[in-house]
Design a protein that fits this description.
With about 375 residues, this protein is an alpha+beta fold. About 30% of the residues lie in helices and about 20% in strands. The chain has helices at about 15, 30-35, 45-50, 95-110, 120-160, 200-215, 225-230, 235-240, 255-260, 265-275, and strands spanning about 40, 85-95, 160-165, 170-175, 220-225, 280, 285-290, 295-300, 305-310, 325-330, 345-350, 355-370, 375-380.
Length: about 375
């Protein structure tokens, strides 16, 4: 028996089926963990039915018939349409020389009867281990890019109340319907970087409005580090520290420097106890680099100056009786995933010159049934 798997199993899809599906989303991402977790559906039509507000049909990154750039669903004929919802995919190509060197090294190792790469001659060991390490790195990078895309879809929906995508080839727009009076509203008081700001009063006023309108309160809010740090800027919080009683101090006081135990965390806890709203700090970014450039740019998933309030899910029972609830990321089956939902992998081999293409993808799209139960507030300039 050969010491290493044969070439056709080097990047073989059967080896990976089911493994990627078990991997947890990145812990610095909140979309799939806290906002819109995965929900398996039986077919793409289920997602089409929920993704309303489309301009010209839902355009997939990949379609059932080859890798077309745009495929539409025909509204006149239910169930008809060659599009496979949003099929996000990434792939890497391994040249014939890479694969050939690996195969030659594994064949030599088999003939030498070596079962441990550490016992191989250095030249053979490097040929085997370098390609395996490259494949592992590429697998991780493809998965990270897909995770970033799903996070972008979810956070973009929360931030803009919809998803508008246009990369020059694929274009679609989905509007999840947050009322204008709840979208990017200013605080009732001053912006939170001002000494006259009233963060607790702003949150209580927002919650009173939402309860009077929908009968549901907000108990979570997604905020940047900058927003949370700004809570202490108002005179109200300085007075809360006990350094000033009933009035504006004549000179600015920073409690961080004059009082142990009082700081951003303490102010955050005061805010949460007074409003019943948990502040979830979120500052994740994804990196982009123009082709040909060596400069990377960090792009935030959510605006740094906007606070996004989310509904109390336990209070939504009277408003929703669906399995989706507030939001879910619907994922449908793919043949390369053995007809199971979630992540899948595939391998494509060319006859000549024997190169290999390995890819990872997922058919998924977030659906927000109750975007009207959210509220976004621009609290910083």
């Amino acid at each position: 028996m050969a010491a290493f798997p044969p070439l056709d199993r080097l990047i073989r899809k059967e080896v990976a089926i089911g493994t990627l599906r078990e991997i947890e989303p990145p812990q610095d991402h909140i979309g799939l963990r806290l906002i819109a977790p995965f929900m398996d559906v039986a077919s793409d039509d289920v997602i089409f039915d929920f993704a309303t507000g489309l301009n010209t049909g839902l355009a997939p990154a990949r379609a059932e018939d080859a890798e077309s750039e745009l495929a539409q669903k025909d509204n006149l004929f239910p169930g008809v349409g060659r599009a496979s919802v949003i099929d996000w995919a990434q792939k890497d190509y391994y040249t014939a020389s890479d694969v050939s060197r690996f195969q030659e090294a594994t064949l030599l190792a088999a003939r030498l009867g070596v079962n441990d790469t550490l016992r191989l001659p250095l030249v053979l060991r490097s040929q085997v281990e370098e390609l395996q390490a490259k494949i592992a790195r590429d697998d991780a990078n493809r998965r990270r890019r897909l995770d970033n895309r799903l996070e972008w879809l979810i956070t973009t929906a929360l931030s803009t109340a919809g998803i508008a995508y246009n990369d020059g080839k694929i274009k679609f727009t989905v509007d999840f319907g947050r009322p204008a009076g709840q979208h990017n509203q200013p605080p009732t008081g001053s912006t939170w970087n001002n000494t006259t700001a009233d963060p607790i009063g702003d949150a209580l006023a927002m919650n009173e409005f939402m309860y009077n309108t929908y009968g549901v309160t907000m108990n979570r809010a997604i905020a940047s580090r900058k927003i949370i740090n700004s809570i202490m800027n108002s005179d109200r919080f300085i007075a809360r520290s006990g350094l000033v009683v009933g009035g504006t101090p004549s000179t600015p006081i920073d409690p961080n420097y004059v009082m142990d135990g009082w700081g951003v965390d303490a102010a955050r806890q005061v805010f949460q106890r007074a409003t019943g709203i948990e502040l979830i700090r979120y500052d994740s970014v994804y990196r982009t680099r123009p082709i040909g450039s060596t400069t990377f740019t960090n792009n935030r998933f959510l605006p740094e100056n906007t606070l996004i309030f989310l509904p109390n899910l336990q209070e939504m029972g009277a408003l929703d009786d669906t399995s989706i609830g507030f939001a879910k990321t619907l994922t449908s089956p793919h043949p390369e995933g053995n007809w199971t939902p979630g992540y899948y992998e595939w391998e494509e081999a060319t006859v000549d010159p024997w190169g290999r293409t390995r890819g990872t993808g997922i058919k998924a799209f977030p659906v927000f049934l109750h975007m009207d139960l959210t509220y976004s507030m621009v609290v910083l300039p």
